């Protein structure tokens, strides 16, 4: 089954306001003619100006994180309804930096995925094993728990409208990429899990992105794998020409 490719650029805690606007414009211009869903994920404080800069373009906007509650006394946090009203369509849930630096658990990530859907956002549920876990042979155990608990609080209809990003932690920001075969093996495993629990319709519809040091020179091979439906790009998304080259791959 063919799924539309989805390429998202996670800018993390980078750019100033001027950089963010310039990068957004450059990405829109450089990817104009491509039949791919293109998403930029700027820092939260630049969502509105980036949304304004991209108005009328084919590029849509995501957020890097959200709070699991819709509103309330949570100083410094940002909720799903706030993101939706700022122009976001997508939100990362459980990025490995949130899990490993900020201690987000599978349960909390599941609450965030549910909060995203409540707000009408498409969550990008990030999963992936550490190097120790891969070396210990528990990649599938870890990823299974992350996927199952991450999706536990939504129904099958919402699962179908969720994106999963497989990002081996050892490949994020390290310059070390999973081989296309390693990526495909875990993507197929995730799709198999979805098939067992939700059936063919959902399993065939969900897009599974690969993330972890995706660059212009490795993107084509990774994207050509059967179960790889796009990429979540960190470092290379900060240069419009590199990001555009990945979109074209
Ligand atoms: C990421 O942050 O999701 C990521 C994959 O980063 P990088 O491309 O820099 O490895």
Question: What this model shows, in words?
Answer:
With 249 residues, this protein is of the alpha/beta class. The protein has a single domain (6-248), classed as TIM Barrel (Alpha-Beta Barrel), CATH 3.20.20.70. It contains twelve helices and eight strands. The protein has helices at 17-30, 47-54, 80-85, 96-101, 106-118, 131-135, 139-150, 156-160, 180-198, 200-205, 216-223, 240-248; strands at residues 6-10, 37-41, 60-63, 90-93, 122-127, 163-166, 208-211, 230-233. Strands 1-2-3-4-5-6-7-8 form an eight-stranded parallel barrel, surrounded by six helices. The longest helix is centred in the last third of the chain and has 19 residues, at 180-198. It is globular. It starts with 5 loop residues before the first strand and ends with a helix. Phosphoenolpyruvate is lined by residues 10, 167, 172-173, 211-214, 232-236.
Major sheet description:
8 strands, parallel, barrel
Order of helices and strands: EHEHEHEHHEHHHEHHEHEH
Q: Could you state the CATH homologous superfamily? A: Aldolase class I
User: From the helix content, strand content and strand pairing, which structural class follows?
Assistant: alpha/beta
How far apart the termini lie comes to: 19 Å
Average predicted local confidence, pLDDT: 97
The radius of gyration over CA amounts to 17 Å
Q: In what order do the strands lie side by side in the largest sheet?
A: 1-2-3-4-5-6-7-8
Q: What ranges have pLDDT less than 50 throughout 5 or more consecutive residues?
A: none
List each distinct ligand once. phosphoenolpyruvate
CATH fold call: TIM Barrel
Shape assignment:
globular
Counting structural domains, the number is 1
| Second rung of CATH, namely the architecture | Alpha-Beta Barrel
| Overall strand count | 8
Number of helices: 12
The helix content, as a percent range, equals: 40-55%
């Amino acid at each position: 089954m063919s799924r539309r490719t989805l390429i998202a650029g996670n800018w993390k805690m980078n750019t100033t306001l001027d950089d963010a606007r310039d990068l957004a414009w450059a990405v829109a211009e450089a990817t104009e003619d491509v039949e791919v869903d293109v998403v930029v994920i700027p820092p939260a404080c630049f969502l509105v100006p980036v949304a304004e800069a991209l108005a009328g373009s084919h590029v849509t906007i995501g957020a890097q994180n959200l709070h699991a509650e819709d509103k309330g006394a949570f100083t410094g946090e940002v909720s799903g309804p706030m993101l939706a009203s700022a122009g976001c369509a997508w939100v990362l849930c459980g990025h490995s930096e949130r899990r490993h630096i900020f201690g987000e658990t599978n349960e909390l990530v599941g609450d965030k995925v549910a909060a995203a859907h409540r707000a009408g956002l498409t969550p990008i549920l990030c999963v992936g094993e550490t190097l120790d876990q891969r070396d210990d042979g528990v990649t599938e155990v870890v990823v299974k728990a992350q996927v199952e608990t991450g999706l536990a609080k939504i129904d099958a209809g919402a699962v179908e409208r969720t994106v999963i990003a497989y990002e081996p932690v050892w490949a994020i920001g390290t310059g070390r990429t999973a081989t296309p075969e390693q990526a495909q093996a875990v993507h197929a495993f995730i799709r198999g899990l979805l098939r067992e629990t939700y059936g063919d319709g959902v399993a065939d519809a969900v897009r599974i992105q690969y993330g972890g040091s995706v660059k212009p020179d490795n993107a084509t091979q990774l994207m050509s794998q059967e179960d790889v439906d796009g990429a979540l790009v960190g470092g290379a998304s900060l240069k419009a020409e590199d990001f555009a080259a990945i979109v074209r791959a």
